[in-house]
Amino acid sequence: MNGAILSGLLTGGVEADRVVATARSSASARRSAEQYGVQVLAEEESTGANAEAAGKADVIFLGVKPPQIVDLCHQIASSLKPSAVVVSVAAAVTVEMMEEALPAGQPVIRTMPNTPLSVGAGVVGLVPGTHTSQEQVESVAELLGTSGAVHVLDEEQIDALTGVAGSGPAYAFYLAEHMAAAGVEMGLDPELAADLAAQTIYGAGKMLVENRGENDAAQLRRDVTSPRGTTSRAIETFDAAEMGRTIRQGAQASAARAAEITRQLRGDAA
Fold it and tell me: Alpha carbon 207 to chain centroid distance?
């Protein structure tokens, strides 16, 4: 996810010399510096790498696993400018958790991005903190908006966004995987089958975006489904297997898992 966000920012016009990143190892730092053309500090070379990078920044993206976010907030707390905005990209870590680990009044933003940010077609849910100004929200939204659609939400909505969009690219990849497998089972070359599946999902997604406001997904599906035709037979098969229900249950399970991780991080009783 960090690579997707950084790629999106750079593609969207953020100058590489304005970015300072950190990595755990020297080898990882060198690879990232070569790949993205930004300055990367290695934690194994300097225990204060995170604090050093954060102290120079107006916007700090925290791209570690959820259990590590609070510890990272503590690491950088004393180095932050009072006006710097600390942005978490981790699931399950609440605004309150971040604010408690940072200096009083520090602006924070909780986000949930997805990986298509790396190709300029992502989605980001954004939850402002208690002390975050509208101007700061707009500034971060503008940064992320160069590589995707940004939606400012109330915090109680973020787990639902996680279930639909945060985890959502995996659902599309899963569909493409099985579409391609079906092609191979029917005699297609694997490379051709994979290309057909990928291009079909790309084209369908583009139609969804470009027709937004005129036709929703259900209408676009109906438009391509002739009565008693080939597509209708496939949809009937999906309906018989309750695939629609299964997809909804999967998204709900993703959202529920995000909420479960939040409870675990808080130490709430099960």
Answer: 22
Torsion of CA 99, 104, 107, 108, to 10 degrees: -10
Question: Regarding predicted confidence, which is higher, 14 or 110?
Answer: 110
From edge to edge, which strands make up the β-sheet containing 122-128? 59-62, 85-88, 108-113, 122-128, 148-152
| Mean pLDDT within 146-168 | 96
- CA–CA distances in Å: residue 48 to residues 90, 122, 217, 239: 22, 32, 49, 56
pLDDT on residue 270 = 46
Our count of domains for the chain comes to 2
Q: Would residue 11 count as lying in a domain? A: yes
Helix (H) or strand (E) holding 151: strand 148-152
Distance CA 55, CA 67 (A): 22
Query: Could you tell me the CA-to-CA distances from 81 to 46, 85, 131 in Å, in that order?
Result: 21, 9, 14
Estimate to the nearest angstrom the gap between the alpha carbon of 130 and the chain centroid.
Answer: 22
Would you say residue 269 has pLDDT above 80?
no
Confidence band (pLDDT; 50, 70, 90) for 251? very high
Hunting for tokens 């139609």 — which residue is that?
Answer: 207
Distance CA 47, CA 221 (A): 54
Does residue 162 belong to any structural domain of this protein?
no
Residue-wise pLDDT for 212-232, tens only, equals 877 899 999 999 999 999 999
Cα–Cα distance measured from residue 60 to residue 53, given in angstroms and rounded to the nearest whole number:
9
**Which structural domain, as residue segments, surrounds residue 148?**
2-154
pTM: 0.92
